[in-house]
Write a structure and sequence with these properties.
The chain is 16% helix and 47% strand. By secondary structure, the protein is an alpha+beta fold. The chain starts with a helix and ends in an 8-residue tail after the last strand.
Length: 183
């Protein structure tokens, strides 16, 4: 078991890693806009009933009433696993770092945005290397009265592109509400 200072260092490092995850998810594809407007990193606050760090498996587990907030976005779920890997070889222990691999949010996942956008699913997996967010388990993405649902919704955050796949027995469904447009 690691000493408390080492464990505290890992928690701090992983919190910084979560900044990298939550920046792209905010606005579902506008990470650069937040940085450019603010000129600095926006802090991430994660709250949960418990936190467990497993350095052997390279995973941090947040359990129970998990809420991760950053900027105008909040992610709520029952459990969040943050998988990380070494950032590379360094000379001393203080210079070593970690790199985010993927984050798995599960159990009644809700991704909320201040201007009204919401995504819900049973599981959301964010892949750092490809900047991809995959929603499964009855995923729905809503904006106002419009929404799309399917078996799997994949958001390619760097490309500002989404793919919605059907479930085994159900087609993709998109509902687009009419707009009152005045000239």
């Amino acid at each position: 078991m690691n000493s408390l200072p080492g464990a505290a260092l890992h928690v701090l490092t992983l919190t910084v890693l979560l900044l990298n995850f939550l920046a792209p998810a905010a606005a579902f594809a506008q990470p650069a806009r937040i940085k450019a407007l603010e000129g600095k990193e926006i802090p991430t606050v994660i709250k949960s009933d418990t936190l467990e760090i497993d350095n052997k498996r390279r995973v941090v587990t947040f359990m129970g009433n998990v809420e991760a907030a950053r900027g105008d976005m909040v992610i709520r779920c029952n459990r969040m696993l943050v998988h990380y890997k070494d950032a590379g070889t360094q000379k001393s222990e203080e210079q070593k770092g970690f790199r985010l691999d993927r984050i798995v949010a599960s159990g009644d996942v809700k991704i909320l945005r201040a201007e009204g956008g919401i995504a819900t699913s049973e599981q959301a997996v964010y892949y750092q290397d490809t900047e991809k967010l995959v929603l499964t388990g009855k995923p729905i993405v809503k904006q106002g009265e419009d929404f799309v649902e399917g078996g799997v919704i994949t958001l390619f955050l760097n490309e500002d592109r989404s793919v919605v796949e059907s479930a085994d027995d159900q087609k993709v469904r998109a509902v687009l509400s009419p707009r009152n447009v005045r000239k």
